[in-house]
Amino acid sequence: QVRLVESGGGLVQAGGSLTLSCAASGNIYNLNSMGWYRQAPGKQLELVATITSGGRTNYADSVKGRFTISRDNAWTILTLQMNSLKPEDTADYYCNANFPQYDNWGQGTQVTVSS
Fold first, then answer.
1. Which of 11, 40, 43, 95 is positioned for an S-S bond with 4, CB 3.0–4.6 A?
2. 3-class SS shares of the chain: helix, strand, coil, % to 5
3. Residue 43 DSSP symbol
4. Pairing state of beta strands 10-13 and 109-114?
């Protein structure tokens, strides 16, 4: 299992940028992928972006062209670069590490985009 700690959330105006980071520590053996998910007030958790162990990325349609997911070679830092932020991006953002039989989650970081 891995311990995930997110950072980088905050308040930003619409059109601005934020970079979220997820520090991962622990055993990453057999890791399938890592990713970012978000949950807006009153809504369900949704996928934002994922990156597989092979480096393939996947994005929600709502963030394509605006967000970029990346990681370091050792899988110790997962980053989400968020540009052209919109008020609808306001949510709690969670880092995820997916293994064959379980998921690890971070505690979340709040992003608020003002109009």
1. 95
2. 5, 55, 40
3. S
4. parallel
